[in-house]
Write a structure and sequence with these properties.
The complex is a heterodimer of chains A (332) and B (211). Chain A has 332 residues and is an alpha/beta fold. Chain A contains eight helices and 14 strands. Chain A folds into two domains: 120 residues, Rossmann fold (3-Layer(aba) Sandwich), CATH 3.40.50; 135 residues, 2-Layer Sandwich (Hypothetical Protein Tm841, Chain: A,domain 3). The radius of gyration of chain A is 19 Å and the shape is globular.
Chain lengths: 332, 211
Amino acid sequence: MKKLINSPETVLADALTGIEAADPSVRVDHVNRVIYRAAPKVDGKVALVSGGGSGHEPLHGGFVGYGMLDAACAGEVFTSPTPDQMQAATKEVDRGAGVLHIVKNYTGDVMNFEMAAELAAAESGVEVATVVTADDVAVQDSLYTAGRRGVGVTVLLEKIVGAAAEEGRDLAAVKAIADKVAANGRSMGMALTSCTVPAAGKPTFDLPEDQMEIGIGIHGEPGRHREPLASAKDIAAQLVEPILADADFTGDPAIVMLNGMGGSPLIELYLMYGEVAALLEKAGVSVARTLVGNYITSLDMAGCSVTVLKADDEILSLWDAPVETAGLRWGR
Amino acid sequence: MSETFTIAHARSWIDGFASRCDEQKAYLTELDSAIGDADHGANMARGMGAVRGALSADEPQALDALFKAVGMTLVSSVGGASGPLYGTFFLRVGMTSGAVDSLDGAGLSASLHAGVKGIVDRGKAEAEDKTMFDAMAPALDALDASLAEGGDLAAAASAAAEAAAAGRDATEPLQARKGRASYLGERSIGHIDPGAASTALLFDALAEALS
């Protein structure tokens, strides 16, 4: 394992120190491992708390700031944060209008956020609503699995719902827009390589040089199936087709993200986006906004994912609203 | 031979589980690499290490307080799915044990059953979902059967440990229906469930504590 770390045990603590040193617009609670806005939101506005295992940067800490999250709870690498962290964050950011928890559908995240919401309601009386993202079409049968994983749409949701909260909408309205985004986004990912969790010291799975893994999540877990490495054009089709087969994206404007898993260079991500855009156009999907880059990563994994969100005028207007975070920044 | 499960047994159980999680860290992580996300060993070792620290800083004198401390420490230090699951297990074991310093066989069984029910409430697992439940349920069945036959606590715990290990091994041919392993579908077949493996360590530690 070759990594820019001091020791596997201190990766998260050391990274939080770096985030705080790099970005004066956030502050870090090193005990609870929560990243907050340095300048909290004004009273009366709904606050947004998300969090999850680390290793997906910039998600979630890089999306703390004006127009997106109020706090992000950082777990160990690929491990959900704990209820006490989430409860501390929830209590800290509440401005009297309630708090929305944004949770990716992974068993551990869901269970820990559930416990946190129970604790927060019982001990501090903060009103908590929850949205769970579950957009990964690689998981087909939700009856016999833990359900679809929450992946790329989480990035788009944090931006769009953050704007709605910034406008001063109440908790029910903020949750409604969150549910709408969660319901209308679909993602599909693939890997060219595995990733290496620092504490494990070796790649999570073996992927031979001439093979690729289709339908991966974001935690280095193996995907739906493995097959010989193909061209970008073929890979794009393997990502776009299951998304379009799962929901109808014609007739409405779409927001599309071509996301890198952390180990693929931007030139390849743009190349992939070109292939994805051509396929979407051919399928009659009208792309209104795009995002290309590393937004929800899986450590050093090479590969990418595609997320398509069916939007409308309201969602586009919230998407275009000003945002000022380390990971996304425009209009302000 | 033990007729009662005392607070000393409880401490020894927890300490033995912590040692096993630490010793078997690489093994648990290797199992988790195959069908999960390669962190179960590190998480359990970290969590049980924190439990050791918490129990040495504060020495609870009643079973409810001791198991509550174990459960809360796990919930706040493990993360993942294992944190809430093992945390809920020990919290429920403590609630059912009550403010006593020992339990008889029936009392221990009732407490463990409450713990397993907590895991089912939290994780919604059923038999053969390829989870820790597949090691826990047979362990409790074996414990109850041994007690019903008039076995002492040592024999009952030993039977539970054997059944948990068998339950762990029996997860190998199963297709996972819960947790991250479920995303693998048929590819989860042929691997032992890491949660069932740590549960086998839990009952092995209980057997040693009561031997």
